[in-house]
User: Fold these one by one.
Assistant:
Number 1:
Amino acid sequence: KLEKVERVNHNVAHFRFKLPNETDVAGLPVASCVMFRANITKDGNTQEVIRPYTPTSLEKAQGYVDFVIKDYPNGTMSRHVHSLKVGDTIDIKGPFEKYNWEKKPVNEVGMIAGGTGITPMLQLLRKVFSPESSDKSSKFTLIFANISEQDILFKDELDGYAKTHSDRFKVIYVLDSPIGSNWSGVTGYITKELLKENLPQPDVESSITFVCGPPPMMEAVSGDKNPDKSQGTLRGYLKELGYIQDRVYKL
């Protein structure tokens, strides 16, 4: 049941769904997603629509689970979720594990995210940089692409990690169309050169590079996932730079 909606920016909102009991925890392993399911009527036809979303609430949060969801003009599920009112319900099933960090931690992590593709990256960063985390050494480099400044989600939190854990976390912001002349980050799109300069090198054995974002970005960087959401072959810039399939994971 939808408990709260907060506008994040012009096309993104934060949704809090209440769990059946106040002491319930979603118990979502890092990194994982859930499936939203709804019967949606469009142009007179009703169909069952299923879409994956990554929770942004902490693993141990009690009584609720949070999501940050972008409203895409042609997104059947995202439009439906954004039309929900407090008190409305939606079917949520999961969790579906993507990459189990507990079982497969590595020393160096590259992260390439676009837009709301930041959510699975944030799931991992929150876990690793939480006070109770036993991981005190893994290093992370995040390349985060957006259209303009107002589209950068969780910027204060990310900048906080970069300040508090400056020896372990670095974030590089990339904007298509920065507004004004004060922008100090990268302008344009993610390039092969940007990846080469900042990510763990392809031959680092204890490393992984995570990629998550809109299909055009995925296609350019790593190749998109298969239609059935399996990993698909590694293509794009990472393949050209010499990365191997086992050290790249599409979230």
Number 2:
Amino acid sequence: MGLMGQDDQAVIETLNECLMRDVTGKLFLDSSTIPPDVTNRIAKQVVEKNAEFVAMPVFGDPSLASVGKLICVPAGPVSIAQAVVDLSGEEAGKASLLKLIGNVLVMETMEMIAEVHVLAEKTGLGTASAQKLIDAFPKAASTIYSQKMVGGDYYRKEPMVEISKARHLTSQVLDLARVSGATLKSYQVAIEHLAVAESNAGPTGDITGIYGAVRMESQLPYENQGSPGVEMD
């Protein structure tokens, strides 16, 4: 039985109505975007009724859904075949938690793309050319950056790009934005983090040390003690 409520209250009301019947042996699959504590609570209700519950929030807009390319994040006791992000065996609320955290990727990606297009328009390059750049940008780049961060490469290995070189380039970008009248707020935040990374790793540190700077803002140490291929908690 599939659930996809507009909010947590709608999901709770729908589930309560379903659980008034005998649901023994049934599987409940919830794709709503709701808080993880709510997911865990309704999962417990389902299990108490001798049924199974899998939380499977999804990422993607209707156009992706129409071609079967949504990213699904299942969590719970039942393994879902062909899942892109498989949390089977995890507490059901982990899927809801990942969905909420994933929204950071969605919103900040949109913010980044918006800034690129605005800068392109203000400088006279044009959004069509910016779109060509976005289309050609390596899709694997985010995976590579993420692995270097989580794996601890940003402070253990030879830098991918030295911070000093990166800061020189960012100053040119800011000059371009200033002259053209464009605002790059998210880019400026990244530059601030780059400065913190330099204060910890020096000018020859790795550009992905931005991760360490963001960690410090959340009262975590600059170095994460990561190992390649090892998940850090």
